[in-house]
Specification:
Elements (H helix, E strand, L loop, with lengths): L2 H19 L32 E4 L13 H7 L4 E4 L16 H19 L4 E6 L1 H4 L1 H7 L6 E7 L21 H8 L1 H5 L5 H7 L9 E6 L19 E5 H4 L7 H6 L2 H11 L15
Parallel strand pairs: 1-2, 1-3, 3-4, 4-5, 5-6
Length: 287
């Protein structure tokens, strides 16, 4: 494909993303009305084996149900009290969430964790997030006192240092007004552009805060949060994991690693309970 055609195709993809983000979902049921397969049960009390509730944090354009139809039942089956929230809603945009200013989304997460801790009686929670949902909690941990309420943050393909969309965001300066349009229509997308004011503030002074364990699970085939190594964190208490180091034939990309990949799920379970971790391999898809 000629370079100019490739660039034009990338710009078209950007416009499509912005369009999807501003249209109502083509569905008759809101995510909040969908079945949650045993999670978001506020009568659940953490066990001695799993003493902390798990809060699942969806990604950009995700919601509290669809993002977790794979992982939430996987964890509840293993005895965890599991909860998920919707955040970053825009007026008039149902179903597709995670689009509002990320600092405001972190405030929603703060309130939700308080609610979960009050219901379960636990002193701390563990957070598992996909994409933006793996990065946004770091604002809560760093600036909103979340480090006192959270034991571990596990990011699945998190946008910790921004998302280049395979280089697409580098084209924005060539389209006058494009960045302003993103900021006005979908603030979370603008916040996730590498070098944004939000990310600069989040990452200055170090990636981590004391007292929290961090795990990043990335895939080399990620086409959204690129380069994939930008997902990694640096600091004490960090474990960065590449999916293909666990199973070389795993071809999951940005969406599949969070929605479907049981090898990634197995590694999430290990990160939640490192004292009883079992090696994650290609065979973990059957566990």
């Amino acid at each position: 494909m000629l370079p100019w055609k490739r660039a034009l195709r990338s710009v078209a993809a950007l416009l499509l993303t912005a369009t999807v983000a501003t249209l109502p979902a083509a569905t008759s049921a809101h995510a909040a009305d969908a079945p949650s397969s045993g999670w978001n049960n506020y009568s659940c009390k953490p066990s001695a084996a799993h003493p902390r509730p798990v809060v699942l944090v969806h990604g950009t354009l995700g919601n509290s149900v669809d993002n977790w139809l794979g992982l939430a039942p996987y964890l509840t089956k293993r005895g965890y009290c599991v909860f998920s929230l919707d955040y970053g809603q825009l007026p008039g945009v149902p179903f597709f969430h995670g689009l509002g200013p990320i600092d405001k989304s972190a405030e929603q997460l703060d309130a939700f964790v308080d609610k979960v801790l009050a219901a379960t009686g636990a002193a701390e929670a563990d957070l598992v997030g996909h994409s933006q949902g793996g990065m946004m909690p770091r604002h809560y941990l760093k600036f909103l006192g979340g480090a006192d309420e959270v034991n571990a943050l596990i990011g699945i393909a998190p946008s910790n240092h921004g998302a280049t969309l395979s280089g697409l965001t580098g084209l924005l300066p060539y389209f006058p007004g494009a960045e302003d349009l993103l900021s006005a229509a979908t603030p979370a997308l603008a916040d996730q552009i590498p070098g944004s004011a939000f990310l600069t503030k989040l990452n200055e002074g170090g990636d981590t805060v004391p007292g929290v364990r961090y795990t990043v699970i990335a895939t080399r085939y990620d086409q959204v949060v690129t380069p994939y190594r930008s997902q990694y964190l640096d600091g004490p208490g960090v474990r960065n994991v590449l999916l293909q180091d666990l199973c070389p034939v795993d071809l999951s990309e940005h969406l599949a690693i969070g929605l479907l990949d049981r090898i990634a799920f197995h590694e999430v379970a290990n990160a939640l309970d490192p004292a009883h971790a079992r090696p994650t391999t290609c065979a973990s898809v059957f566990s």
